[in-house]
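Epimerase (Peptidiphaga gingivicola), 129 aa
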Amino acid sequence: MIVAGLIFAAVAAFIHIYIFYLESIAWESERARAAFGTGSVEEARTTKFMAFNQGFYNLFLALLAIVGIAAWAAGASAVGLTLAFAGTGSMLAAAAVLFIASAPHRGAAVKQGAFPLLAVGSLGLGLML
């Protein structure tokens, strides 16, 4: 179960790296505007700095999970699992906030939170077994 949880954590991390890319690098692109519903390039420009900052939050959560996976693979299981839980747990908490706070964004919250939920659940079960 631990290995499955770490695989889910890796998928969650890569999703959050992609979100980082959209928010911090490609915010004004057609793909990012469609994904986040910002409309025109001009509208995207007004929120570019906030999106840039938010993208780095997503990157740091992803890196936390990735470093946790690497630490676990290197034999530091307590450190690795702690970091993987911290990264994916924070991703899950952010998705829950989005789900609760914004009905129009619930689909995005589910997409953002599905793999972190699977990671947290699998890791938790793996530790109990």
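The chain has six helices and no strands. The mean pLDDT is 96. ok done for today
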